[in-house]
Every structure is written in C-alpha cells, then in structure tokens.
Amino acid sequence: MFQFFKRVKTYVGSELNAALDKAEDPVKMLDQFMREMAADIRDAETAVAKQIANEKMLKKKLNDAESMAAKRQQQAVDALEAGNEDLARRALEDKKVHEGQADSFRGAHKQAEQDAAALREKLDEMKREYQEMQLKKDSLKARAESAKTRTKMNRAMSSVGGDESRRGFERMEEKVLQYEAEAETSDDLRSSSRSIDDELDALKKNSDIDEELAELKKKLGKE
C-alpha cells in the first residue's frame, strides 16, 4: 500500500549527496529529484482520496444497516401491538440480518478509517519532506552556481599572464618594434631623397643666378 513512498526515502540524506556527486549537472539532477518527488506526492494524494472514499462508502453502509435494524425493531413492536406475532417474528429475523451486516461493516469501516488516517499522516510527512527538500535544493542550486562562477573566474584569471599569453604579448611587441623600425627607415629614405632633390634644385638656381650676374656685368662694362 505504501510503495509510492519508496522513491522519496532514497533522496534523503547521504543518498542524495551521493547522487549529486555522480551527477554531471547537479542543478538538473535536483530538478529531476523534485519532479519525481512531486509525482510521488500526487500518487499518494490519489491513494488517500480513494481510501477516504472507501471509508465513506463503508460508513454509509454501516449507517444503512444500523438504520434498517432499528426500523425492523420498531416494526416488530408495531406488529405485536397489532396482534400479528408472525409479522413481528419476521421483522426480528430481518433485524438480526441487518445487525450482522452492521457488525461486519463496523469492523471494515474501523479498519478503513485507520488506513485513511495512516495515509493522511504519510502524505503530510511526504509534503513536509518535499518542502525541506525544496529548501535544500534551492541552497544546493545556489552553491552549485556559485561554484561554477568561481571556477570560471579562476580559469580566466589563471590564463591572464600565463606563458602563452606572455609569449603572445612578446610577439606583438616585436611586431610593433618592427613596424616602427620600418617606418623610421622609410622616413630616412624619404628625407635622403628629398635632400638630393633639394641639392639639385639649388645647383640649378645657382647656375641661373651666375648667368644672370654675368649678363648684368656685361651690360655695365664691369667685365
């Protein structure tokens, strides 16, 4: 009768912790545990409802049997007062039948009542455990998420300044130095080229001036 409590007990205490240790994703496993526990509770509620219905049915049959026994008793009295002893006898005989039925229903009803009470108690216990596990699940989920975050941060921080990153920075520094050297060389070449052009221009200008000066001297008779 209480097989639906079996799975709930397996999630309590060390067995839950062992399951979490083996789980690849504790958060998903915890959610799965809670879904299965909720399913167990629904099964228990169904069983309790059926047992309560059975107890009520037996109670009604008990009341009906007791009512018929009381009715036959009164009919026997009425028959005797009317002078009909045979009818009174038959009423008492039927009364005995209903009293026997009442005795049978009384025992069955008492047992059904006890079973219903036991089921209610178990259901209440399951719901209390579920609430406790819900709180524990929330705590474990928070711890798991915190641990994941710390792990990610530690991995990220450990990679900063590592050999690979340091070598990468050194390579980039060498490239920057190379670019700067190439730029300086380009500037030097351009400056050198510019100086040659300037000197050639200067020679040409000097030659023009010399010619103009010679013509001017000639005109003035200074030669």
TrEMBL record:
Region: Disordered, residue numbers: 134-196
Entry-linked Pfam families: PspA_IM30 (PF04012)
Regions of compositional bias (Basic and acidic residues) in chain numbering: 134-148, 163-177, 187-196
InterPro entries, per database record: PspA_VIPP1
PANTHER family: MEMBRANE-ASSOCIATED PROTEIN VIPP1, CHLOROPLASTIC, PHAGE SHOCK PROTEIN A
Family: Belongs to the PspA/Vipp/IM30 family.
Name of the protein this chain belongs to: Phage shock protein A
